[in-house]
Specification:
Elements (H helix, E strand, L loop, with lengths): L13 H28 L2 H10 L1 H22 L2 H26 L14 H8 L6 H19 L1 H4 L3 H18 L2 H10 L10 H19 L11 H15 L11 E7 L12 E2 L5 H7 L2 E7 L7 H10 L26 H6 L4 E7 L8 H7 L4 E3 L1 H5 L10 E2 L2 E2 L1 H17 L3 E7 L20 E2 L5 H29 L5 E7 L13 H4 L13 H7 L1 E8 L15 E2 L3 H8 L6 H10 L2 E4 L4 E3 L12 H15 L6 H4 L8
Parallel strand pairs: 1-8, 1-10, 3-12, 4-5, 4-8
Antiparallel strand pairs: 2-9, 3-11, 6-7, 10-11, 13-14
Length: 645
């Protein structure tokens, strides 16, 4: 009987197969690197340009992907399977980055992974997201590379002791690579700066998607002040008390406080080359005459509402936490180191703090963090609809709860809280003007005629959706203040836009590039003045009794995410903690301080004057002590300055 001839599992000597295995891993790592950059760069020539001008980041990215393919191949015994898995991960990262840019014009960062569990909700808010043609071309190219590895399996297969030793050594190397010294050694060899903290757009542009995320993983947070110890921090505390004792506070008042984050609200009249049939912000502009109002400096453009809220309510920003950390997903205990803005009112027992949101509870970890910040109760869209309010017509406007309906819910809660003998601190988050800004959002309705010679018919449909959303927000504000004028309960309203909308046009450009306000979608080549302009909205603080504004009605004042809380506290004369008193002093010289830009107390994008550095140094010391250090003075920072000896 003839014996069946079987095909050998391998071809060639073990040493040659090992060399081909390593070469295959490097080739696949290079292919994944090119494919990822292809998706995010839009063209293959752009990838070659990046590799030529930034060879260090290119080869380090190749090294990272090759190491992953090599280790996975040694583990599974199938280099093609490892290559397919690593390629799939790379393509998914690239696609998420592409969608992130499509949503708000900013690259994917490590902090965005804090929202990974809510990715579906985020995508739903953004509207229709379609993978670009380059994604499918890159995927096809990777599939071809995997196919080559598959048909050459016999030439790259490792077996027995060789495979075991290869996997052991490669796993140890990968573990070493995941350490700060290991990554630092490779980065130094390839002349890659792995330690300088830079803004996300520049990081993404120079280092590519993969390495920009890898850098964020290893960059450290704040460093300790020189001489940090208990006596140093006691000296900091004494200096803070000295500074806070320099001015007389306003008389204390106890009005209801209604804070409203109006989604993507800003003054449309600031956009050039657009003519409106009438003022789309007629209520806002009328109220400015009896309010404290001005420019509101944000940290974001097109997205980031939850991050903005956290900075506003807690007083910290992205520079205060390690790169890649998500300000909404820190350890729970960190949210209790300082008394938050609502607690400046509630700790006296005279106020009750509640939050109302025109959407559900799926995003930004609010159900965890907001109770830690002092909110007694959270009301989301469904809860508001269960208040039993009288309302005619649909409670939804566009895709979300109407602003006016949310405001009616806030007044319902204020009335009930007042009836129980307390004042209300209410924080509302609107959604009617939230993206997506597709033409059908409001059923092609636009109350105000508009013309713009720089936009064609299809792009004008998008502009009209933004115009209609902001007009509705303005009308809801007018309804709220008119209603409060008839109320005997003293009430202060703080109204601001969290950021401008992204407003992407049909061709992928934004309305801001079309109108010449910036050279391109990302911020890499923007001037500081352009960043400061587009990263700002508008705000006002209005009261139904002018006396509550301490003689400031009708005045203009620059404010910001981290300045609006201290501004409100000062206006109402609250016995604030040292922490919030210090933040108020800092806002006099610094309204915005991020990786991207700095804005001084007058609202000008500039550098901090040497004589003003002390205030930021004091703040940095307080933040370091609370979030990273031994909390030598953190408890004292939550006490009023007048309690100091």
């Amino acid at each position: 009987m003839l014996k069946r001839k079987t095909l050998s599992r391998t071809l060639g000597p073990a040493w040659l197969r090992w060399i081909l295995f390593a070469a295959g891993a490097v080739c696949m790592g290079t292919a994944v690197t090119v494919a990822v950059q292809w998706v995010i760069s839009d063209t293959l020539p752009a990838v070659f340009w990046w590799a030529e001008h930034y060879p260090g980041p290119f080869w380090m990215t190749v090294f990272l992907y090759s190491a992953a393919v090599f280790t996975g191949g040694a583990l599974t015994g199938r280099l093609w399977a490892s290559g397919a898995a690593v390629g799939a991960v790379g393509l998914i990262l690239a696609l998420v980055d592409y969608f992130k840019n499509a949503i708000n014009g900013t690259p994917l960062t490590l902090e965005d992974f804090g929202l990974a569990a809510q990715a579906g909700d985020v995508a739903g808010l953004a509207g229709d997201l379609t993978p670009p043609q380059d994604f499918w071309m890159a995927a096809a190219a990777l599939a071809l590379c995997v196919a080559v590895l598959f048909v050459t399996t016999r030439l790259t297969r490792l077996e027995g002791r060789v495979r075991f030793l290869t996997f052991g050594v490669s796993l140890a190397a990968v573990i070493g690579l995941c350490s700060v010294p290991g990554t630092g050694a490779v980065a130094k060899r390839l002349n890659v700066d792995f330690y300088t903290r830079i803004d996300a757009a520049k990081n993404h542009y120079e280092n590519g998607l993969t390495l920009s995320l890898w850098r964020d993983r290893f960059l450290q947070g704040k460093t300790a002040p020189e001489g940090y110890c208990e006596s140093y921090m006691q000296a900091v505390l004494a200096r803070i008390d000295e500074l806070l004792g320099e001015e007389e506070p306003f008389p204390e008042t106890t009005p209801n406080v209604i804070m409203i984050l109006s989604e993507s609200f800003f003054d449309l009249n600031n956009l050039p080359d657009i003519a409106y049939e009438r003022d789309p912000l007629e209520n806002f502009h009328a109220l400015e005459k009896e309010s404290v109002s001005g420019t509101f400096h944000s940290h974001y453009l097109g997205y980031g509402t939850g991050y903005i809220e956290m900075s506003m309510l807690y007083g910290i920003n992205g520079l205060d936490i390690p790169p890649g950390s998500n300000i909404c997903f820190m350890d729970n205990g960190l949210y209790e180191r300082f008394d938050a803005l609502p607690e400046q009112y509630t700790k006296s027992g005279r106020y009750r703090a509640e939050m109302l949101h025109a959407f559900d509870n799926s995003l930004y970890n609010r159900t965890v963090t907001y109770p830690l910040l002092g909110f007694d109760q959270l009301h989301f869209s469904e809860d508001v609809q269960n208040f039993g309010m009288e309302w005619e017509g649909n409670v939804y406007g566009g895709y979300y709860l109407r602003d006016q309906y949310l405001f009616q819910g806030m007044l319902e809660r204020m009335e009930k809280i007042n009836a129980e003998g307390q004042r209300a601190f209410l924080y509302g988050i609107t959604m009617e003007n939230h993206q997506p800004f597709d033409a059908k959002k409001f059923g092609y309705e636009c109350q105000i005629g508009v013309e713009c010679g720089k936009l064609d018919r299809d792009n004008m449909f998008i502009l009209k959706v933004m115009l209609e959303g902001i007009t509705r927000a303005d009308q809801a504000l007018g309804w709220l203040t008119d209603t409060l004028r008839e109320s005997d309960e003293p009430t202060v309203v703080v109204f601001f836009g969290d950021h401008r909308p992204n407003l992407f046009m049909i061709d992928g450009e934004t309305v801001y590039t079309k109108l010449g306000l910036c050279p391109e979608n990302d911020t890499l080549h923007w001037t500081a003045e352009q960043i400061n302009d587009l990263y700002s909205t508008d705000y006002l603080i209005w009261a139904n009794d002018a006396a509550l504004l301490q003689g400031q009605a009708g005045t203009k004042k620059e404010s910001s995410i981290t300045a609006i809380g201290p501004q409100l506290l000062k206006l109402t004369g609250q016995p604030v903690s040292r922490y919030w008193g210090l933040l108020e002093k800092v806002s006099e010289v610094c309204l915005t301080n991020t990786e991207l830009y700095f804005v001084n107390g007058e609202g000008v994008a500039s550098r901090l004057a040497p004589e003003q550095e002390e205030l930021l140094q004091l703040r940095d010391a307080v933040i370091y002590d609370a979030l990273y250090g031994r909390q030598y003075i953190t408890a004292a920072m939550n006490e009023p300055a007048e309690k100091a000896a």
